[in-house]
Request: fold
Amino acid sequence: MSNASLTTKFIEIQGVEQTFKTKKGPFTALRDINLTIAKGEFVALIGHSGCGKSTLLNLIAGLTMPTGGALLCANREIAGPGPERAVVFQNHSLLPWLTCFENVYLGVERVFGAANKSTGAASESKAQLKERTDAALALVGLTHAAQKRPGEISGGMKQRVGIARALAMEPKVLLMDEPFGALDALTRAKLQDELLQIVTRTHSTVVMVTHDVDEAVLLSDKIVMMTNGPAATIGEVLSVDLPRPRNRVALADSPQYLGYRKAVIDFLYTRQAHVEKAA
Amino acid sequence: MVSAVFHGPLEGAAAPSKAPHQPVRLAQNAAVKSIPTSAEGTKVMKEPSTARIDWRELALKVVPPVIGLALLVGLWALVSITTKGNIPGPADTWGQAVEIFSDPFYRNGPNDQGVGWNVLMSLERVALGFGLAAAVGIPAGFAIGRFTFLGRMFNPLISLLRPVSPLAWLPIGLLVFKGANPAAIWTIFICSIWPMIINTAVGVQRVPQDYMNVARVLNLSEWKILTKILFPAVLPYMLTGVRLAVGTAWLVIVAAEMLTGGVGIGFWVWDEWNNLNVKNIIIAIFVIGIVGLLLEMALIKLASAFTFDEVKS
Reply:
């Protein structure tokens, strides 16, 4: 394949189906998922809870294997999890017995501490690894908290360490599972702005699961809206053509922004509203 | 399954020691919030007055245990009077105890040694049996917890053997090791291995899936998973197992030594029974209780030092 097709089809999801075995028999969580994600694209997955957004993200991460179909990243089948597809977990998942520095260093050491066969990069020295870790913490503005343990810092700071850990590994893809879901609105807005800046600088490819309409419109290039489970699939894909850099205050009364917002809300609460009624 | 929660018999007694830390904690709070709120300001101001109230709290913490002990001694004295001195009273026993503890490390032949030697010999057996059990049980617990196949293989065996009284293994030990001392150690080994295997295995199974997912995404080696994730996450469970094991071992050693003889606190109790020296038996009961309590306290201290807040939740 040429480089051009790689930039437009960096991640390819082809006819993916995910079925779980349960006591009541097989349960189909996802079916007929077809999606391509370009390099450097920011994609949001949105849908009601239980629609399989996180299941899809775990499939891209390689944490679970699909029961049907195939997932490709850079033309290679995703066979398992790895640092090139870093995950920012919903509840930060920092190791409480390590300091913030050590949490980030753990990933850095694994990726850059040994010679890399696929890229031919030599192993880096301890000082270089330390520098990378410090740089990642500086990127999320946490240099001062490097020697603190996760139990000593706030929820927003923990989530930032989680992002730093993911970014420090220089992943090809950044996968985020409702990264700001557990935070208050003000902290969430601050971290969204930080994430926008970081992604602009690093040109990362990002797939983010969210249930926040504003977050999806503000951050993404593409919003993937999912139908309700069971057997959820992609209902609609909305391209968000707002110019970057984006400013939440300026966008607040932009008709274009409000149009996108309306489209997502319309999908979620008019066309996919039946689950709430059934429950 | 054995519960993997810390129950400290001394939790209440440990509480007063927290009081001196309070000013430090308040000072920290004030430092974190750059502008201390008025409520906190007043708390800091009140500090001297709370120090005065502490005396009353301290009395409330100290008086009930003292009453409890007094009740025990009173009952004991009552029993002693009603049995017309068959069971010696507290005062007699105290006098005897002072005499015994003024020379705990004497040696008059193999069957007549000081109480200090007896306790030390028992502790040595417990340490040996328990140490061997830890060396086998903790790695076994990790393996059983980490690999489902091994878990399914060994869980029925553990369920079958665990309820067996450790003393039932004593004849097997005597037969195989041809000696009283290794047989006693063998009994301690058997009784203390189960809580360590089970608690370690449960700890490994309860390591949050999130941490294991982190390990998979970071593609950590099995060694790094063990040292950076499994071991720290399992440590509190493991220490609970250790604590239960030491408690059981200390219970069992007394019974085992009664049967095997030699030098040891259990044998001492039996020997004094044969001599009809009831005072010494009562002293031995107190000695066994106090040593057990000290072991338990030391291990609780160790366990709480290695428990992280986020692991508990």
Observations:
- The interface with chain A takes residues 208, 210-211, 213-214, 216-220, 224, 228-229, 232-233, 308-311 of chain B (CB under 8 Å).
